[in-house]
Design brief:
Radius of gyration: 22 Å
Membrane topology: Multi-pass membrane protein
Pfam families: MBOAT (PF03062)
Keywords: Acyltransferase, Membrane, Transferase, Transmembrane, Transmembrane helix
Oligomer: single chain
Number of strands: 0
InterPro entries: LPLAT_7/PORCN-like, MBOAT_fam
Number of helices: 17
Order of helices and strands: HHHHHHHHHHHHHHHHH
Subcellular location: Membrane
Number of domains: 2
């Protein structure tokens, strides 16, 4: 409906923004995502747009980011106190998405109105905003129905290109040719079916496997004391893979929903065929067969990883990896297991870089040794990832330490 009936050639941008906003607010209410914290976000957004915060010269992006993260943190703490250790789907998920969007806009306005263009990288130049969005534009982006519940999140620039339809009018084509393809010529059916099929497969695997390999058993004292180490390691890996299926389901379902409404167009391949990979959150095959931590992190929760890179990694001058992991943990909440996982991942990323620089060249002499290196690094990566991520799923830091012990 949104992609066809509310086509940019048929209705105005304001109509598309209004419908997307109202649908997003309705879905939030329908899924019981409304809370005092969401109302605080609404009031804060109204304040930001009407108080002149964006027009002031001092640290406007830091101010907006601190307040947004503060509201999200209060929600995380409230949930952690009231339903400790639960995996209930509630308002915190949409709040995490809203936080990303609010901070995206704050930094884009800061780059466009508060920094010299010579100090911006290519992405920052593309995403910068020379003026503050109108209330409809701002709220339409923050609460758009396609990704308010489970993401993935795109930038404000990507959203406006989608609303106006200009993203589809890029002149590209096979080598040696150029042409412009109107939006009406696009069909998202193939991409949508592929992603929905992946989502269904993942949820089936999760439903079948997770009861057989509950993650909680990894911290059970009896299981630890009476199970051989190798079996415990294999069990931990199977339980984490089963748990990841739940996230894969959400990721792929979110991608499909965005594609259905027309979001996620990623340009054209060398043959001029349209690609719908812009709003991707996980590349399952590359992730499960990752040969190092960087490859794994690059293919997991991709939109959040891009957000963290653009907001933190590309902007801080020292300890960039550590700062990125700490913000990621802070954004997720305050369970101790999160911090055990992210600090461990930071150490593993640095160790993997050193190991790759030191060892890889010694295995490139032949095809056989190169493949041997690939297999070994894949297995080692999965072992370390399992070791690092079990505390994240267990949530409780003492359970995580018990598993490690």
């Amino acid at each position: 409906f949104y992609r066809k009936v509310l086509h940019p050639s048929r209705v105005s941008s304001k109509t598309r923004q209004t419908v997307g906003l109202l649908a997003g607010l309705f879905l939030s209410w329908l899924k019981q995502c409304w809370s005092w914290f969401l109302l605080h976000f609404l009031m804060f957004c109204v304040y930001v747009l009407n108080s002149g915060v964006f027009s002031k010269s001092y640290a406007k992006n830091q101010y907006v980011s601190v307040v947004a993260m503060g509201i999200l943190s209060a929600a995380h703490l409230y949930r952690q106190i009231t339903v400790y250790g639960s995996y209930v789907l509630d308002y915190t998920g949409p709040l995490m998405i809203i936080t990303q969007k609010i901070i995206y806009v704050a930094f884009s306005v800061h780059d466009g109105m508060g920094r010299d263009e010579s100090n911006l990288n290519a992405e920052q130049k593309k995403e910068k905003l020379k003026k503050v969005p109108s209330p409809l534009e701002y709220f339409g982006y923050v609460f758009h129905y396609s990704n308010i519940l489970i993401g993935p999140v795109g930038t404000y620039h990507e959203y406006t290109d989608f609303i106006t339809g200009t993203v589809f009018n890029t002149k590209v084509g096979p080598v040696g040719t150029c042409h412009t393809v109107p939006w009406a010529a696009f069909n998202t059916k193939k991409a949508t079916v592929e992603k929905l099929s992946s989502a269904i497969l993942c949820v089936v695997v999760f439903v079948v496997a997770s009861p057989r390999f509950p993650v909680a058993s990894n911290a059970d004292p009896y299981f630890i004391d009476n199970t051989p180490f190798i079996y415990r390691l294999i069990y931990a890996w199977l339980s984490i893979v089963a748990t990841r299926m739940r996230y894969y389901f959400a990721f792929k379902a979110g991608e499909a929903i965005n594609n259905i409404c027309g979001l996620g167009f990623g340009g054209y391949d060398e043959e001029g065929n349209p690609s719908w990979n812009k709003m991707s959150n996980a590349n399952i095959t590359k992730l499960e067969l990752a040969q190092n931590m960087k490859m794994l992190l690059d293919n997991w929760n991709i939109s959040t990883a891009v957000w963290l890179r653009r907001i933190v990694y590309d902007r801080v001058t020292s300890h960039r990896t550590l700062a990125t992991f700490l913000l990621s943990a802070f954004w997720h909440g305050f369970y101790g297991g999160y911090y055990l996982t992210f600090i461990t991942c930071q150490i593993l990323v640095e160790a993997a870089r050193v190991a790759r620089r030191t060892l890889r060249e010694h295995f490139q002499g032949s095809k056989m040794t190169s493949r041997f290196y690939d297999v070994i690094t894949c297995v080692v990566t999965m072992v370390f990832v399992t070791y690092a991520t079990v505390p994240f799923v267990l949530l409780d830091p003492w359970k995580g330490l018990r598993f490690w012990g």
